[in-house]
Amino acid sequence: MSAVILLLSAACLHGYAQQDSTKVASNNKEEANRNVMLNAASANGPREISIGLPGGDVNVLENGIPVVYNTNPHNVNTHWRGDSSLGHTGLLKISETAITTGNIGYAVNSFTELGLDKEKAFNGVLNYGTNHFGKQQFDFNLNGSLGNDWYYSGSVYQNFDPGSFKLRFAQYQDRTEIYKFALTKRYNEGRGQLSAIYHYSNSHWLSNATTGAPFIYVGDGSVKEVPGFSLGTASYLPNVSDIVYMDMRTGEMKSINLYDATASRGNQLTILNRYKWDNGLEWKVNMKYDHALGSYLYQTPMAMEQKTLADGYKTKGLDGTMTPYEGYVQSRMSCFNRGNIDEFFFTTELSRQYNNMTWRVGLNEWYYDVDYASCTTMYDHTVEEYPQILYGAVSDQIHYYGDTPYYNMNQNASEYYKGHENKLAIFATHDWDITDKWNVYYGARFEYQRLAGKNLAVYNEEGKAVGRFANYHIGATAADGTLITPRYYSYDWLNMAFTAAATYKMTRQFGFTADFTYNTQRPNMSNFAPADMPNVDKISIPLGRAGIYYNNDWISLTSLFSYIAKTNNNSTLNLINPNNKDDIKASALTYDIQTIGWTTDAVVKPFKGFDFHFLFTYQVPKYKKYETSVIFSDGTEAGIDATGNIVTEIPKVLIELDPSYYITKNLKLWASFRYFSKTYANIKNAYYFNGRWETFGGINWDVNKHLSLSGTVINFLNQTGAKGSISGAELVDKEDAAQYNGAWMAGSYIRPFTVEFAAKITF
C-alpha cells in the first residue's frame, strides 16, 4: 500500500547542466543534489524524485547498499535520516540505480562518516533544529584518529516532533532515535581500509497515519475548509489511544495503542572493505545484516456521507451515555502492518580507471526473510477537529465486534505473507572517452531472483478467489465452506537491465546527449500480500532521452525529450460499493503506463554571488490497459476502465525556480519555488485539483568556522488546500462528477506554513 508518487521531471538534467564544458554528462554516477532533502511532504525524509511512473519505493542507499529491502513495513524514515552521521549525500542517476540495484528511479546515495580524513583525535559536528510547532531535533557526530591507522566515528540522532497539530493520544507524531558507531583500520600503507559499523534505530513514526483531512470539493478544482476545521493544523484522528483488531494469523481479538502500533526497530551490523592497488585496480566489499521489527500504520479515510437519526449512529459520553447522532459520518480503515524481518546484503565491485576509460564489474547477493501481516479494522467517526467515534449503525453490512465501535475485521485490505526472497546479480559498466568529442557509457545487469513462501490468496473448488470477508483469518471458513489456509508459492526468474549513453561535443560549449535504459523486473514478496495471486509476467521498463546541452561562463543549459513506460504494474484498489459505503472490496489489477515529456533545465549566473536554477517539464502520463471490476456483497458489480486516462496525482507541467544570492561570502539568501499543474484526484479523471506551488525560503549564515545558523520558511505563500487523491472516489465517472460539487470529502493536504531554525557547531 505504501507508494511514492514519481513524476517525469529532469532531476538528472541539473546534473548534466552543472558539468564543466570539457566534461561529458555521463562521467558522473551522481547528479547534482537539487535539494534532495528539501521536502514539502515530510519533515524528515528525502523529497519525491520524478521519473514518470506512479508507485514504487524510494531508493535510499547507504554505503552502496539499500537502507531497507522493502519500505513496507520497515520504512526508510524509521531507520535512516540525513544527519551528521553521513559524510556525503548525493543523488544517483537512473541508469546507475538500474545497473547496481535493479530498481528504476533516482536513489539517495549516502555514505557513513568514518573520520578517515581527520588526523585529530576529536572532530565533531552538532546539529540542532526546531520549528514553531515545537519540534526538537538533535544529532551529533564525533570522529577522529586513534593512532596507528585506527579511526573511529560515533553518532546520535534524536527527534521529538509533535507535527503541525497535537494528538491527544500521543505526544509526538515522530519520535525517532538512531545510534551508530564505526571503527576503521587502514592497512598495507593505506592501500586498504576495513570498517565495522553498528547501527541501532528505534522509531515511532505516526506521520503516515495523520495526513487525512476533510474538505469541501467546490467543483472547479478548488476546495474549501470544512467549518471549524483548519487543513494542516487540525487533527482528524479521534481521541482514542487504542484500537481493536483481529490477528490475521490466529483469529484472536487484540488491542494496541496507536503509538505502539508504529514501533520499528533495527539492529544492523555493516562491514566495509576497500583496497586499491598501485596500478589503479580497486576492489570494494560492502555487506550488512539487519534484524528488524517493521511497523506501518494507516488510518485511511474512506467514504463520507450525511446521516440521519434513522441510520442509528450514536456517540458515547464520558459517563457511558449513548446519544443519537445525525450529521456527516466518516468511515475509516485502520491498517496495522507489522513484520519481523531479517535481511542480508552483500555487494562487491572490481574497477580500474585509465586515462580515457573506467571499467567496473560487480556482484550483489541480497536476501530478505519476512513474516508479515496487515490487520484491518473499520470504524466511523464525526467530521470535526478531534472527532468522536460513532457506535451502532443499523446496517446488514456492518459486523461489529461486541459492543465496540469497530467492525468488519480484516474484510478489506488485510494482507499476509511469510517467506524469503533472494537476488543474486552480476553487473558491469564501461565509461569510455573514445575521442575528445565522443563519450560512451554502457552497462548491463543480470539478476537471478528467487522467492518462496506462503500467503492467503485462497481459491475455492471452482478456482475462484474467495476474497476477504468479515473476521477473516487463518482457520476461518468462507460462506461457501472454503477453509482459509495458507497457500504456498515458489518462483524464480531472470531479470535484466541494460543502459547506454552517448555524448557528442560539437564544440567546447555545445553538444548532443542521449541515453537509454531498459529494465525488466518481476513481482517481489510484497506483491503476494493481497487476496489474489499477482500477475507474474515480466515487467518491462524502457526509458529513453535525447537532447542538447550548452555551457558557457554564465549559463549551463540542457534540453531533453523523454519517454518512459512500464508494463504489468501490480496494484490493489479498495473499492467502495456505491450503494453501501460500509461494503469495501479490494480489487487486484495489472496495468501499463506510458509517459512522454520534454524538459529544459538551466543554471544561470548573471553576476557574482547570484545563481538561478530553472526547470521546466511538460509531460503526458497515461494509463494503458487499466481495467478491473468487483462484485460486492449485495451483488452489485462495478468496474473501472481508465485506459487512456491521465495518471492520478501526476501533473502535466512542472516548474522549479531556485534563486540564491550571497550578500557576503558568509551570508546567503535563497528560495525554491516548485509548481505542479492540475492533477486528477481519481482514476476516472472525474475529480481534479488546481495547480499549486510548493515554496521554501531561507537565510544561511556562517558566523565563523565553528558556527553556522539558518532559518527556513516552508510554504511561505501560505497556500492551503488538498492534494493527492480523494478517498472513496474511485468509481465516480466524469459525467457524474458535477453532482458532487459542494460535497464534503476527505483526502491529503498541503504541508502548512512552517518556520524552522537550525544551528550547526563544528569542532
Explain this structure.
Helix content is 2%, strand content 55%. It has 763 residues and is mainly beta. The strands form 6 sheets. The protein has a 22-stranded antiparallel barrel. Strands 1-4-5-2-3 form a 5-stranded mixed sheet. β13 (242-246) and β14 form a beta hairpin. The longest helix has 8 residues, at 94-101. It is globular, with a radius of gyration of 26 Å. It starts with 10 loop residues before the first helix and ends with a strand. The model is unreliable at 1-27 (pLDDT under 50).
Describe the SSE topology.
Layout: H1 11-17, E1 30-31, E2 59-62, E3 65-66, E4 86-92, H2 94-101, E5 107-112, E6 123-131, E7 136-147, E8 150-161, E9 174-187, E10 192-205, E11 213-217, E12 223-224, E13 242-246, E14 253-257, E15 263-276, E16 281-307, E17 314-316, E18 322-324, E19 327-353, E20 357-382, E21 389-391, E22 415-433, E23 438-455, E24 487-505, E25 510-521, E26 539-551, E27 555-577, E28 580-604, E29 610-624, E30 627-631, E31 637-641, E32 653-664, E33 667-676, E34 679-680, E35 688-689, E36 692-702, E37 707-714, E38 722-726, E39 743-749, E40 754-762
Parallel strand pairs: 2-5
Antiparallel strand pairs: 1-4, 2-3, 4-5, 6-7, 6-40, 7-8, 8-9, 9-10, 10-15, 11-12, 11-39, 13-14, 15-16, 16-19, 17-18, 17-21, 19-20, 20-21, 20-22, 22-23, 23-24, 24-25, 25-26, 26-27, 27-28, 28-29, 29-32, 30-31, 32-33, 33-36, 34-35, 36-37, 37-40, 38-39
Give the tags.
mainly beta; 763 residues; disordered N terminus; globular
N-to-C CA distance: 44 Å
Overall geometry comes to globular
Largest sheet: 22 strands, antiparallel, barrel
Tally of helical runs: 2
The class by helix and strand makeup works out as mainly beta
Compute the number of strand runs: 40
> Which regions contain 5 or more consecutive residues with pLDDT less than 50?
1-27
Q: What do the pLDDT scores average to?
A: 89
Q: Helix share of residues? A: under 10%
Rg for CA atoms: 26 Å
Strand content: over 45%
